């Protein structure tokens, strides 16, 4: 793939359920390589790690040479390919929306859970002694997620 300079912008579809390119396997999901301003950005990663790998190879795109990744939201058909991507580019920055909780990792105040003092301690979350902050893990431990707050305009 040719280097893209600051004056050239290009989008290459890597994953979609539509398309005419016989080299690409179609599947439910979406991923595109955005080349702009000398940067190589993966937007979403499709549904299947295997199909993302196959389609990137078919388009001669080296996912190990990405500048960063933008994840639009936490649906499997937009993030399933991360399992492959992180094997070839484990240190890539991943920008994702900060959500209340979920697979990108986040936290919630313990007020999120209902408290039922009428239940026996063993039937309540944390035996009724909730921590101040509920910590949620990530589906990809060690991945460099940069959680971005959504803004309304």
CATH topology type of one domain: Metallo-beta-lactamase, Chain A
The CATH class label of one domain is: Alpha Beta
Tally of separate helices = 3
Largest sheet: 6 strands, mixed
Give the strand order, joined by hyphens, for the main sheet.
Answer: 1-2-3-4-5-8
Q: Structural class, judged by helices and strands? A: alpha/beta
CATH architecture heading of one domain: 4-Layer Sandwich
Average pLDDT for all residues? 85
H and E order: EEEHEHHEEEE
Overall spatial form: elongated
What is the percentage of strand-forming residues?
Answer: 15-25%
Which homologous superfamily in CATH is the superfamily of one domain? Ribonuclease Z/Hydroxyacylglutathione hydrolase-like
Please give the alpha-carbon distance between the first and last residues. 37 Å
The radius of gyration computed from the alpha-carbon positions, rounded to a whole number of angstroms, is 20 Å
Poorly predicted tracts of residues: none
Count the beta strands: 8
Percent helix, as a range, is 10-25%
